[in-house]
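Section 5.1 Outputs to date
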Amino acid sequence: MVTKRLPARRRPKQTKIPPGPKREDYDNIWDWIVAMGESIPKEVQDTIPHDGSINLEHYLYGAPKRSR
C-alpha cells in the first residue's frame, strides 16, 4: 500500500479575540447569540471559510475540496 503525505497546512495569523458579551446580560438567548456573532472582529470573520460544512474534511485533514 502506497501512502502519500499531505502537504502541511499554513495556519492563519492568530488574532486575539476580545471576550464576548455575558449571557446574564440578556433576557433572551437569541439576542445573546446575535450579540456574540456581532462581537467577532471583522478581520477574524474574513478568515472563516464560507464553505466550511461541505469542505470540513479539507479544512481538518487536507482532503480535496468538494464543489457545491
